[in-house]
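Here is one chain, start to finish.
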Amino acid sequence: MFSLETLALIVLFFIFVYLVYKGIKLLFRYLLISGVSALFPIIAIKYLGVNWPLNLGTILVFVYLGVLGYTIYLGLSIVEKIGKPIVGLASRKKKKEKQMEKRVEKLEKEDEE
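Its structure:
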């Protein structure tokens, strides 16, 4: 029926398709962030009365800041996803230690009586 190599190639193909999907999705998010960041100085100058020079340099600085902010946000969300299980394991261990201490104290009180 299917050989192991064929099955491995099918699995690799689905992994490739998934990663391309995620990459394109990320690319469109970055394009959206860039567009909104490029519009910000234009809106700020026209409607808020900010005294910035409206040139390509100003727009590119805001695009850079928007992309940088989104990249930092993505990085922190990855750190949070990785850190939550680690913190959860540590807190469970502390809870178990407290429960054991309570049991020991209870047994010591019973022994004294």
